[in-house]
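Inputs:
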Amino acid sequence: MILSIDSSGLVASVALMEEQSLIAEYTVNNKMTHSQTLLPMIDEIFRLTGMDKGAVDAIAIAAGPGSFTGLRIGTATAKGLGLALDVPLIRVPTVDALAYNLYGTTGLVCPLMDARRSQVYTGLYRSKGDDFKVVRPQCVVGIGDIISCVNEINEPVIFLGDGLPVNRTYIDENITTAYFYAPAHLGRQRAGAVGALALRYADDDSYPGVRRESAADFVPEYLRLSQAEREMLEKEAGAKKG
Amino acid sequence: MLGIETSCDETAAAVVKNGREVLSNIISSQIDIHKLYGGVVPEIASRKHTEIINQVITEALDTAGVGLDDLSGVAVTYGPGLVGALLVGVAEAKAICWARDIPLVGVHHISGHISANYIENAELEPPFLCLVVSGGHSHIVRVTDYGKYEILARTRDDAAGEAFDKVARVIELGYPGGPKIDKLAREGDPDAVPFPKAKVNGADLDFSFSGVKTAVLNYVNAYRMKDVPYSKADIAASFQNAVVSVLTEHTMEAAKRCGIDRIALAGGVASNSALRASFEKACSANGYRLFRPSPVLCTDNGAMIACAGYYEFMAGVRHGWDLNAVPNLKLG
């Protein structure tokens, strides 16, 4: 049994999965503090399903990118569970999991997560037959960058994610391919998708983004340095030039 | 009791038996990283806690020779401190407790610092008076019972440790300022420069350290403008003397007013050698008994959190799975 967690954005989501079946999923998109909701949600799904904590084989976690604080609440929760239950973690890239909501869609899938500072956490994905392929790995870029990439590939594309509201106007005005927006029930992070990707690829080297790691060694993938580190690098670069 | 502490730049965990017997006390300091930035960078601190927390907890359990099933409870600092840093310890502690059905006890960071005095002083019991001095706090606290506090005085602006850090920056000693000033001050004359010892109108036990910090800045700037050399050691010694004598005088006055003859020191600045010497002298002159933790227990550590958590646990305190980090948590 896998317990999966996604607290990378505004949504807090946890799910219990067994082989090919989703036993329970609890998703809250209500601007509540993950610190106060995440563990009570986990407690709740175990209580309601009557499942045994001891039967958990691994903790799948949306490993970033995302809100730094959200990622850390999820990470520390997963690491604590991994330590106490003596199970490994399964790293799942956040944007990949978001794209996996739309597994089986014809054309490209383009998740957009609001990364503030006029950027998005995004990537491009394609389903072909039973195959799920990363076309452009998750990254943090300006909306213009990813839209020109989509225009260049020139295939129908479906967008989803909490970066949509801020960037919708830009997309409508600049995109040159056929495009769609995901419906509400598929448009945000879901722990079910994190767990499904984990179950499918944790032991499959063909998808290196998803892999098992020890709870002790696991760290999230922020895709961004802290502001202090960025400023120091800029200063050093400036000093070299000057 | 397992104690977990991640409120600032130390990732710490410890196992303490019956509140006073330290079985392990593991501290992983990030200071070398933050030195590069001249102070603690909250985002970096939070990231580092996340990287190392499981190793620190595992080492604390292994060193103590206990497993999770041997624990009566897990105590974790939930405030005050850097919110991102606190959240790592809180989420980790909650997850461990939930997974193994262990009682969870949230602890106030300052209650931890005060409780560090219990660890090495078997005979110390409330009531007593405690001066809490660190980078974030300068309080005179009356400890009326285990976990019960009454704040008699506080700082109106900078904490004592903050003033040390800022003055160290002014005279270019680097970070962390406290130990560096302490060391340099030994070579200087504490009476060389009469820096002000501020009083707060209407609350004569309270502290104010921004005035002395500004006085140091003005003093140094005046010399720099004239391009005249000045003695950093004399400035360090005189500044330290101004701060230490105010801390000592106010604490002695508070003890006199409360009729308490047992005084304890707590917090990172409690390892300052001049502060210790000054308190030893004043306590001995007044016939007070002085308690102070050894330096390793003055710094942020898990043992003090386990100790404070033990007494909270014995008083019946339990926290739920919705425990949150509270960056400005009040004491008492």
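The mean pLDDT of chain B is 95. Flag for discussion at group meeting.
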